[in-house]
Amino acid sequence: MAVTLDLADIQGNIIAGYGKQGFPYGRLILFHIDDVGDPDRRAANGQKFIEALRPLVTSALRWEGKPSRPGERLVPKPAATLNVAFTFPGLAALGVSTRTLRAMPDPFIDGMAKRARMLGDDFEGAGWREKWDEIWQADAKPAHILVSLNAQPDTRAQMDELTEQVKTFARDNQVTLLVGHNQKGAKSEPHQDLNALFGPDGEARRSEHFGFADGISDPVFEGQYTFGDAQLQARGNGAVDGDGKWRPIATGEFLLGYPDEAQETSGPITPIPFFRNGTFMAYRKIHENVKSWRDFLVKAAADFQKVSGIADADEARELLVAKMIGRWRDGVPLSKAPTPEEKRKFDDIYGPKKAELKQLKKSQFGDPLRRRELEKELQLAYSDFAFADDPKGGKCPLTSHIRRTNTRDGLDPRPKADPLLRGGSVLNNRRRILRRGLPYGASGPDATDEGEHGIVMLTVCADLFRQFEFVQQQWVNYGLDARAGSDTCPIVGNHSQGAETSDPDARKRNGPKAKFVVPADPDGARPPFIVEGLPQFVETRGGDYFFVPSLTALRLIAQGAVDPT
Questions:
Q1: Percent of the chain scoring above 70 in pLDDT
Q2: How far, in Å, are 188, 189, 433, 447 from residue 185 at the CA level?
Q3: Domain coordinates in residue numbering, the chain
Q4: Among 169, 14, 15, which Cα is nearest to 85's?
Q5: The pTM is what?
Q6: C-alpha–C-alpha distance, residues 541 and 133, integer Å
Q7: Distances in whole angstroms, Cα of residue 211 to Cα of each of 199, 207, 288, 385, 445
Q8: Average pLDDT in the 283-291 region?
Q9: What is the enclosing helix (H) or strand (E) of 53?
Q10: pLDDT score for 476
Q11: Dihedral (C-alpha) 317, 454, 16, 257: value to the nearest 10 degrees?
Q12: Residue 170: which H helix or E strand, with range?
C-alpha cells in the first residue's frame, strides 16, 4: 500500500539532501540552554528560543517547479533553509517529561562519545577524545540544540542574516552559542561552515577531499517521491525483492511512527504526536588526512601496477582507488566497468549524455521529455547494479567501501536457479541509512594532514543501534561479513598501525597493521594484490546523536506541552 507523507509536518533536511537541491553551502550552529538555578525557568527560556525559531523552520513541502502529485501544495524555494534538532540533555533541559524521555533509545540517551569504542572512534587509544574539536571536549558545555542552515550560491548573504537572527533569539533567552568548532590552539570558530567543492568552472561538485564523487546512491523509501519517480529512484537504491525487482524501502526505517521492513511501527509509540514524523541523526565531523591519502597512493599504486601488469601508471592508480571504494572516482560502479578498458567504453556511451543533460538543466527552454529520458538512463547506469553475480569480488572487492556499507543482494543466503534474479536480504534492508551533510574546508595540491578539511556526515535513521551503529561497527570496522576477518574498511575504517601504534593499550587491542586485498582472477595467472600498513585516512573530530522532531513536536516542545498527562 502506498504511503502518503505529511510533508508539512516533516523537516525538510530528512526527505532529501539540500546539497543535491542547489544548496551547496551550509552552517551548523550549536547552543546550550543556560542553567539559571531554576529548572522551570531554564526550560521556559529554552522554549521561548524554540518558539522564536519555529516559524523559520523549513518543512519537506516540495518547492515550486518540482514534480508533484496532482493537487499537491507547492511552496516557493527558500533563499536559505533552517532546521532544528536536539540532544538528549537538550530535551531534558527543555522540560520534556520523564515519561517521554524514558521512551528514548539507549544510544541517544548515552550520546555518541560514550559509544566511541564501539564506533571505532578511538584512533589514538586512551587519548582519543583529545583530538576532537574543542566544542566536543569532555569538559565543554554539552550541546543541547543544533540549528542547521543551507544556502544557494547567490543567497549566502541571507544565510548570514539568518545566522544573526538566530543568535539574537539565543541572547534574548539566555541560550548560549557554543564556540570551538576547531582544534585546540586554533582560532575559535562560532559555527561549523560547510561547502561543496567547486571545479575550475565554478560549479559545485558532488565530491569530497579524496576526490570521490559523493551522494550518488542514497536509500529511497516509500512516500519520499511521487510514484513514477519512486519506481525509478528505487532501482539500485531501494530493496531487492527476490524476483529481480527493486522497490522503495519501508518508510519506518527512516521516519518514526510508520511500518518498517519488519512491518512493525518504528520508534517509541507514545506520545504519538511527539515521535511521529521525527527521526534520529548522527552528527559526525570526519577529518580527512589528504596528504596521507596521496602519499599512500604513490607507493601502493606503483606496487599494484607491478602485480596487475597494467602498463599505464595512471590507469593502475585509478583502478586501485576504484577497488578500494567500489566505484571509479567519478562514480561509475566497478560492477559495470571493472577494468580501465570497460571504463572507457562506459564513458564513451554515457559521457556525452551527461554533458547533454548538464546543458538541458542550464537551459531555460530545454526539452523536459529529453531531460527526463536522460535522467532515467543515467540513474540506471550509475545505480542499478547488484553484487550476487560477483560472489568472490573479482569485479568489486567484498571489502570495498560501497560493498560494506550497502551489501545490496550480496548477503542473500538463498540459492537461485537464475543468477540474474536479484535476491533480497533483510539484513541489508534493515541497515540502510540516509546520508546528509557536506564537505568543509579546502584542500589544494599542497594540503597537509593538519589542515581543516573533511566532511560532516549527518546520518539519518529511525534506529541508531540497528542501522547506523551496526554499519559502523560490524561492516565498516569489522570484516566478517566481507569474509575479511578483522580487516576494516580501506577508506573510513579504524586502521591499526600494529607495533607502531603509539598508545600501548590500543597497540595490544588493535593487532597487526591494517591491510587491503584486491582478489585475483581465479582464471588468471596473476596473484592477488595485498597492501599492508594502511594509514589512518580519516579521523573523527566530534559529534553527537540528535533527535529531529516533526513540526508538530517542535510546537509541543516550544509550548512545554509534551505528554501533558
A1: 95
A2: 8, 11, 35, 19
A3: 289-424+466-541
A4: 14
A5: 0.95
A6: 6
A7: 11, 6, 11, 22, 12
A8: 97
A9: helix 39-53
A10: 96
A11: 110
A12: helix 156-172
382 by DSSP, 3-state: which? helix
Cα–Cα distances in angstroms (integers) from residue 376 to residues 121, 231, 271, 379, 380, in the given order: 39, 11, 41, 5, 6
The mean predicted confidence, pLDDT, of the chain is: 91
- Scan for cell 551533510, then name that residue: 437
Which cell numbers hold the place of 461? 535513521
Q: Find out whether the peptide bond into 271 is cis, omega within 30 degrees of 0.
A: yes
Best CA proximity match to 209, nearest among 220, 221, 195, 219? 195
Name the amino acid, one letter, at 269.
I
DSSP tag of 498: G
The model's pLDDT over 192-238, given as tens digits with 9 standing for 90+, comes to 999 998 876 666 677 899 999 887 888 999 999 876 788 888 888 99
Burial label, 277 (beta-carbon count in 10 A; 0-12, 13-18, 19+): buried
Tell me how long the chain is. 565
Q: State the Cα–Cα distance between residues 136 and 387, nearest whole angstrom.
A: 39
Q: Which three cell numbers stand for residue 269?
A: 509509540
SS (H, E, C) 81-97: EEEEEECHHHHHHCCCC
Residue 394 to residue 323: CA distance in whole angstroms: 10
pLDDT of res. 207: 87
Report how far apart the first and last C-alpha atoms of the chain are (Å, whole number): 34
pLDDT classification of 161: cutoffs 50, 70, 90: very high
In the prediction, which pLDDT does 417 show?
Answer: 54
Q: Radius of gyration (Cα) for the chain, nearest Å?
A: 24
Q: CB–CB of 11/548 below 8 Å?
A: yes
Residue 74 neighbours by CB under 8 Å, 6+ apart: 61, 62, 63, 64, 65, 66, 68
Q: Let me know: does 250 contact 244? Beta carbons within 8 Å.
A: no
Q: What string of H, E and C letters represents the secondary structure of 96-113? A: CCHHHHHCCCHHHHHCCH
* Residue 318 grid coordinates: 585509478
User: Kindly report the CA angle at 220 between 16 and 64, in degrees rounded to 5?
Assistant: 40
β pairing state of 453-461 and 279-288:
antiparallel
Element spanning 80, H or E: strand 80-86
329-338 pLDDT per residue, tens: 999 999 999 9
pLDDT value, residue 86: 98
Q: List beta partners, residue 530.
A: 517
Count CB neighbours of 420 within 10 A. Answer: 9
Closest to 26 in 3D by CA, of 439, 386, 365: 439
Q: Which helix (H) or strand (E) holds 456?
A: strand 453-461
Cα(423)–Cα(404) distance, rounded to whole angstroms? 17
- Residues sharing a CB contact under 8 Å with residue 145, sequence separation 6 or more, in sequence order: 30, 31, 32, 33, 46, 49, 50, 84, 85, 86, 87, 90, 175
Q: Is 343 helix (H, G, I), strand (E, B) or coil?
A: helix
C-alpha cell at 181: 568548532
Q: How do strand 538-548 and strand 529-532 relate by DSSP bridges? A: unpaired
